[in-house]
Design brief:
Blueprint (H helix, E strand, L loop, with lengths): L8 H17 L5 E5 L4 E5 L2 E5 L3 E5 L15 E5 L4 H14 L4 E6 L4 E6 L11 E3 L3 E3 L7 E3 H5 L3
Parallel strand pairs: 5-6
Antiparallel strand pairs: 1-4, 2-3, 4-5, 6-7, 7-8, 9-10
């Protein structure tokens, strides 16, 4: 039996920090945060794609979504691990095509968070907004602001 190795302890700590902060920020809203391994169904060019982001926020979830989420999230967060290209290129393109309005890539090695906001032409800016310290605020989950150093550590 072949199994993919679990994420690192640092990855899990970052995920827990983000999950707790988002869960707290969303308490009095119609939005929820989900973490892996929750299936997310994205439609891209009439093609169904099932992805499992590290974290994502969806609002006004349909009751029909009992086994997997089929609604486009407001925010998806991926925490980089060994397969960086998958999160930085493949998933970025897929999430852009699915019109996910906001995508964060958390980089534990370089201790930074890159925030991509879909623009009016349906594209993410090439370099995104990079945060090494200070606070980061979600544009599409306005109740959520976090300390970058609490999430990724300090340089």
């Amino acid at each position: 039996v072949y199994m993919t190795p679990s994420p690192s302890i640092k990855h899990q700590r970052i995920s827990r920090e983000l999950l707790a902060g988002l869960h707290s920020a969303l308490k009095q809203t119609a939005c929820e945060v989900f973490d892996a391994p929750t299936d997310l169904v994205l439609k891209v060019n009439n093609e169904t794609n099932i992805v499992i982001p590290d974290l994502f926020v969806v609002c006004n979830l349909d009751e029909d979504d009992a086994n997997r989420v089929t609604k486009t999230p407001k925010l998806i967060i991926e925490i980089l691990s060994k397969n960086r290209k998958d999160d930085e290129v493949t998933k970025l393109i897929k999430y852009q095509q699915a019109r996910v309005p906001e995508y964060w890539i958390v980089d534990p090695e370089d201790m930074k968070i890159t925030q991509y906001i879909l623009n009016s032409t349906g594209k993410y800016p090439p370099d995104g907004n990079v945060y090494h310290d200070g606070t980061i605020t979600s544009e599409h989950v306005p109740s959520y602001t976090a300390s970058v150093t609490e999430i990724v550590g300090s340089r």
